[in-house]
Amino acid sequence: MRLDDLLHALFTYKKLGRGNPEIASVESDNRNVTKGSLFVCIPGYTVDGHDFAEDAVRKGAVAVVAQKELDLDVPVILVKDTHRSLAEIANHFYQNPTGAFNLIGVTGTNGKTTVSHLIEKVHRDQNQKTGLIGTINIKIGEEEFETKNTTPEPLLLQKRFANMRDHGVDTAVMEVSSHALTLGRVRGCDYDIAVFTNLTQDHLDYHGTMEEYRQAKGLLFSQLGNTYDTGRKKVAVLNADDPVSSDYEKMTSAHIFTYGIDKEADVKAEDISFSANGTRFRLLTPEGEEDVKIKLTGKFSVYNALAAISACRAADIPLHAILKSLEGIQGVPGRFELVDEGQNFPVIVDYAHTPDSLENVLSTVKEMAQGNVFAVVGCGGDRDRTKRPLMAKIATKIADTTVLTSDNPRSEDPERILDDMVEGADGHFVRITDRAQAIAHAINEATEGDVVLIAGKGHETYQIIGEKVHDFDDRHVARQAIKGKKA
Question: I need a labelling partner for 384 at 20 to 30 A (CA). Which of 96, 203, 206, 397 fits?
Fold first, then answer.
């Protein structure tokens, strides 16, 4: 694609310098620039892409998009906002890939990963080729790729969508974070279905207030089309039990499909019963009622199942096929995942890292425990400090013994993080900074009938201390502790 053709993606710009070179790739990281690249200068939190424009040209960039005039030997495209322009250019360069398949976006504080995986599994069981983008990984069919962010940057995102299109993907499901919505990473993504799980406190270090956080999530629904094309319907799937849903309903012109437990909804669960082996409930839908059994447990799992059922019905998958798929699902990595080494008490690893998710998971654990509940809980560094005492308060209120420990302290002193947590503690707790020792302590203290919950990191296989990333997997550490105890 020639530069001038690519610039059709932009509404306003000023071209400084002559030339209409062939563009072989679009890059926003100068380290990835090769001969024929268009380099887009992105101002970041710590570095500014404008400072690397000359290096990009030396490496072969044939044009540069910037927010300020640069003295370069290649055309410079001057725009007001390179973040917005990058999304527009990437979408055009990769030829609007999300127009070629059905795209389902899932947003909310808790449940995004599980709901996305459930939806993807149902579509895959319908012999569709699927794509998945989220916290754990990116999948295109059976091929998996690592991901650094819940929602990738727009350039990588559109590239992966183009890969999906070229590999014949029928439906893609993706988690959509509030950061991605605020930063415009998903601009140009043509969503067909948008799913809202819930809104509880998280990311206030970034958004500042719950109102700003609410507005950020709402962007997904306000961007969900503004037509009633019967050939490609747009549907907002909303949690009727969360009061924020009424705001999102007003923000979108899409069709509304609701789910819930406590309030009236299009898809509703009643007569719910839990056990260590799963959950049963009566499902009420516009098409009739069904008895459902899933191998996931807890009220939060019912909400996740309802969200997935609603999204799949919005995608016109028959109800009986949806339920058959869900009944066969064992779980999602790091989400209420059992670590079984033959011990006589359950050890559960869960990603719960917000006050609400921790309370939900601990309440479920408390219901299934025959003895004491041990909770291993930490909070991340360089993140929302206000939730630290809340997390400790919830853990010490519900668990019989709470082990306060490190999560990913990053640049913060882990002892300071624990000091913040201790302020909210209101029950029996022990303080063990080393996470591996904390996990071992809980497992060594547990006896038959007790339950150990290790919360906060879930599927993660690393721990960030200072600027170093260390190998660390709660599940592996727990297994080693169990084996050590048995020995």
Answer: 397
Residue 184 zone, left/alpha/beta (φ > 0; ψ -120 to 50; rest)? left
% pLDDT > 90, the chain: 77
CA 348 from centre of chain? 20
pTM of the predicted protein model: 0.85
* Contact call for residues 104 and 191 (beta carbons, < 8 A): yes
Q: Which two tokens stand for residue 365?
A: 């654990």
Confidence category of residue 44, pLDDT binned at 50, 70, 90:
confident
* Chain segment 374-415, per-residue pLDDT in tens: 999 999 999 889 999 999 999 999 999 999 999 999 999 999
CA-CA distance, 340 to 325, in Å (whole number)? 25
Cα gap 476→483, rounded to integer Å: 11
Residue type, 332: V
392: left (phi over 0), alpha (psi -120 to 50) or beta: alpha
Of 441, 442, 435, 429, the C-alpha closest to 470 is 435
Largest CA distance in the chain: 76
Distance CA 450, CA 348 (A): 11
Report d(CA 151, CA 116) in Å as an integer.
Answer: 13
Q: Which DSSP state fits 95?
A: T
- The pLDDT value given to residue 201: 57
